[in-house]
Design a protein that fits this description.
The protein is of the alpha/beta class. The chain is built from twelve helices and twelve strands.
Amino acid sequence: MITGGAGFIGSHVVRLFVRKYPQYTIINLDALTYAGNLENLKDIESAPNYRFVKADILNQAGLEKIFDEYGITDIIHLAAESHVDRSIVSPLDFVYTNIIGTVNLLNTARHKWAEPAGHLFYHVSTDEVFGSLGEKGFFSETSPYAPNSPYSASKASSDHFVRAYHETYHLDTIVSNCSNNYGPNHFPEKLIPLFINNIIQRKPLPVYGDGKFTRDWLYVKDHARAIDLVFHNGKPGETYNIGGFNEWKNIDLVKLLCTLMDVKLGRAAGDSEQLITYVKDRPGHDRRYAIDATKISSELGWKPSVTFEQGLSETIDWYLNNTEWLNHVTSGSYQTYYESMYANR
Ligand code: NAD
Ligand code: TYD
């Protein structure tokens, strides 16, 4: 069972598993919040080894029924509230889904898997649990937890619960902590898809603070490949950091995006850069994230398959070729969200 499979990363994981492992039956459990979208999985929806189940991880009784009905053997858990800015506005939503939802799933697995060995609970998490780096250094698997946003605090808490269920109840668990993802099907609220959409629409590009905040970007399909490797070859009880060795200051990334999009949209060079607008900083904004991915690369043989320029170019092409998807996700309540997030900055 893959939870959150209708979301951004989850949909890439579901597609990879459905196609690569015809011998597995993949159950995609998702509540279809604003971030979940079954259009992300149209190409595999009628595959014989795929089932979608609309369910909320906050509903413990519902989870137990699903375990019984489908005989769930292993879990890759991605369902979450995932956007830092939303967590600043509504922290409790993050407590419910990310912490209580994860503990519900852990409890269900613990109760249903009478013999805990032979099953795996794989929890997908973020590097944001480690807090913020200075100019130098990297997060490793032994970095101390120091979450600064309600989002990262909720993910840190869920990571700790997963660890505790391994230690206390001997559930086989793995946690991976990944850097910022980008790619197709990303909801236009995070930096890259929001700015791609705004450039298309000629809307302002709101760069927070001085724009020199640094993120380590990884193409979503490379994250999905890493999850496949960790699920199959990772050691229970361990954690794995996943990242692209690909650090960009926000403003440099935004300028690259503008340059690429001017070319693809047939606009004059420098046109989209004029949309850049510096706005008030995000509270608690982490200055820099960077992952040391040595463990997953040396132990499991993983490395990213595309350069950032390739991945970004493919991503832009995907958005330009999927205007129906983009129009769909930016209609309805999206406009209200957008106004409320950016009007007062
Ligand atoms: P997303 O917001 O695109 O998708 C989350 C999915 O979870 C959606 O399909 C949503 O409908 C579902 N969901 C939310 N609440 C639910 C609930 N109560 N019950 C069932 N389903 C629910 O998120 P994403 O960016 O794909 O991230 C997936 C996971 O990976 C998250 O756990 C996130 O913390 C982690 N992660 C994300 C990134 C990133 O850059 N996006 C990086 C590292 C780790
Ligand atoms: P985001 O995509 O929200 O990911 P995260 O906060 O989880 O790293 O943001 C990436 C970086 O871009 C982060 O430093 C905040 C910044 N940012 C902006 O400058 N403007 C924006 O409109 C958004 C959404 C993010």
